[in-house]
Design goal:
Number of strands: 11
Largest sheet: 6 strands, parallel
Shape: globular
Radius of gyration: 17 Å
Oligomer: single chain
Order of helices and strands: EHEHEEHHEEEEEHEHE
Structural class: alpha/beta
Strand order of the largest sheet: 1-11-10-7-2-3
Helix content: 25-40%
Strand content: 15-25%
């Protein structure tokens, strides 16, 4: 595994770098191979999606991009809480990607069945490496409690699950979610972890400085064994780094 840390003055600069890295990794993939991209939700990904739509929407060959999600709230696809809706409104509706290349988590379906259905769909469409499906490019965020995807400190055991996707619960709202597990996260080729804002600074520093207790945070468990992890931070999120 290789680890890279990039710090930017603004979220806009971070978004521009993300787009350049995504474009480079797509270009490095053989033309006859699909490119799997797993999206995340949140405010910074929204900025990134807008940047892609406005600057690179017509330069990427969307026919070979397969879009998945790393987690989703168990809500309808038209809910304001839906990660799918956010990505559709800010990116997917503005680029020429075939509908057949978009694989959403059905948040409106019974979650105990949807996690298994989505895992099987993922297996069917993503290339296999060393016996498991391997995502080409995986986006992750970091919560103020140090969680990533929808693996919170209270359900950290989900990271080590043998399943590709698990049913999760938000510790405060008790809202059901479906999340990718470490079996996907740590098998990806490129994992990009994004953190912005001073509210993330404490946990970012705890994780990247390998401070005591960081092993209780799911974002600290991201170690793609055959890939790279790239941390993209704005100056506020990086303000407490050693």
């Amino acid at each position: 595994m290789t680890t890279t840390i990039k710090i930017f003055q603004t979220v806009e600069e971070l978004a521009q770098y993300f787009v350049s890295l995504l474009t480079l990794r797509i270009r490095e993939t053989p033309d006859n191979h699909d490119f799997s991209w797993m999206l995340s939700g949140g405010n910074t990904p929204k900025v990134i999606f807008n940047e892609i739509a406005s600057t690179s929407g017509n330069t990427i060959n969307w026919n070979r991009i397969l879009v998945f999600w790393g987690d989703e709230r168990c809500v309808s696809p038209d809910s304001h809480d839906s990660n799918y809706k956010m990505a559709r409104e800010n990116l997917l509706d503005h680029v020429p990607i075939p509908c057949s290349n978009i694989f959403r988590i059905r948040g409106e379906a019974p979650p105990e069945f949807e996690s298994d259905r989505y895992a099987e769909q993922f297996r069917q469409h993503v290339k296999t490496f060393e016996g498991s499906p391997q995502t080409d490019f995986l986006m992750l965020g970091v919560g103020e409690d140090g969680h990533t995807a929808s693996i919170f400190p209270a359900n950290l055991h989900l990271f080590g699950s043998n399943k590709l996707f698990e049913l999760s619960e938000h510790p405060e709202t008790k809202q059901n979610r479906i999340t990718a597990t470490g079996k996907i996260i740590n098998h990806a080729k490129t994992v990009v972890i994004i953190a912005t804002g001073e509210g993330k600074a404490l946990k970012v520093a705890q994780i990247l400085n390998h401070s005591t207790g960081c092993d209780t945070l799911s974002a600290a468990l991201v170690h793609p064994e055959n890939g790279e992890v790239v941390w993209l931070l704005d100056r506020k999120a990086a303000s407490l780094l050693a």
